[in-house]
Please model this.
Amino acid sequence: MSVDLQARIPNNVDLAGDRRLQRALEHWQPAFHDWWLERGPEGLQKREIYLRTAVAVDRAGWAHYDYVRMPDYRWGIFLSPPEPDRVIAFGDHAGEAAWQEVPGELRGPLRRLIVTQGDTEPASVEQQRRLGAIAPSLYDLRNLLQVNVEEARHLWAMVYLLFRHFGRDGREEAEELLMRQSGAVDHPRILGAFNRPISTWLDFFCFTTFTDRDGKYQLAALAESGFDPLARSCRFMLTEEAHHMFVGETGIRRIIARTAQLMQEDPNEDARTRGGIDLPMLQRYINFWVSESIDLFGAPDSSNAATYFAAGLKGRYQESKAGTYADHLLLEGTHSIERPRADGAIESDPVPMRRATNALLAEAYLRECEKTMTRWNQPLQNAGLSFRLRLPSPRFNRKIGPFADALFLPDGTPTDDPDEVAGHLPDEGDRAYLESLQGEAVMERAQCAQWIAPPTNPINKQPLDFEYVRA
Ligand code: BYC
Ligand code: FE
Ligand code: FE
Model:
């Protein structure tokens, strides 16, 4: 598992031992760099940023901090160490040795999963590219750029698998990953949420809380894959994911802390007249990004999901963790899934287990989101305020699954009034207000915009007034 850091593409997959593959990836590399400069973070490419770079896959090496200019960031290919004698943990091949090469009959579905995963990574960088110009502090700016370089590394992780295991098709898919563009009408990114604009820091913090958390759950499901190179890639990507969710969750927590303070200072508990972000607006952004993110789990009753599980390509959350599940075959039993009836009433439908694995993953995801909400409500409770933030019902604002065809409110009750639904989602007025609030980036050390409390969690034990981005 030696790491070659001096190579043009740092890696621990012995690229130097496969000249053809190395040349193919070095051929893709300039296209990647062009993409980064054209569609990556705007205007900050010459700055020195205090970034973490993976230089090894062990505890000491995966988080090495230094000042780097982003175009010089060492995007590398890293797989977690192999697990000796690993066997497939679930599905029709449970108990067989994990595959080091792609089984011929699984080529199509496997390629599709890798491409879908890979597509989200550059998409998110494109979505976030203009946020640097309105960053609330150097600390936040640095965190944004950290997330961006790591998502770009996740693209490399999937592109490696495509080049190494899918021949000419893989090369074409890798080119396509740089051609599709978030939000483009004629050539959009594959999944819905990755085509929505992230035009404010409220969008960004909600996205990194809820959409990166979908990333965590999807990567965890793919980390169970019988295709060992995919499992090892995803396991290493997961080490980086925690920081992305940290950025989102602490970002929103700081907004709530500032809002709570402004509400206490105001006779009408009105944060907005005092230049803050009011809680109903925050709730609308939560409603939007949670519903978009639940859509990313696919339909709760899915034949694709059943195929992936049966084939051993995509497991449940923590499928192979001892003690989590007794049954790894899922040939028996059902899971109940809600569907709306034509008259608006909700019925519960038993779905065969394998077809319900998208629903199981989404439910695990939502349980974790609930914990975030509890943490976010804490400062409100401490301040003696009665408002509580809530997760919207999974029926609300859906575009995928059985609830996509009818209208529901965030509390789960049906409605036939689209305006009532829209009232629970961010609108033009919200965006205009946030844009006026955010103004220009705060680029002085130790300074922070007034709509968010200053950071409280240092990066790599540096002081909070550290020069996270050099002038
Ligand atoms: N938007 O059986 P169904 C991350 C399509 S995030 C548009 O319901 P399936 C990250 C679906 O493709 C994690 N289309 O769903 C986070 C299918 O199309 P076809 C990304 C959608 O296939 C932040 C049809 O609807 N990783 O890493 O079981 C920053 C019916 O399919 C959507 C993955 O997603 C949608 N939301 O599951 C950076 C893992 N949902 O066949 C990065 C890989 C479904 O009719 N992907 N469709 O043409 C998968 O495992 C699956 O593709 C999905 C969908 C879970 C996404
Ligand atoms: Fe990622
Ligand atoms: Fe992420």
Notes: The chain has one domain: 15-438. DSSP finds eleven helices and six strands in the chain. The two ends are 38 Å apart (CA to CA). Residues 151, 212, 215, 241, 244 surround fe (iii) ion (ligand 3) (CB under 6 Å).
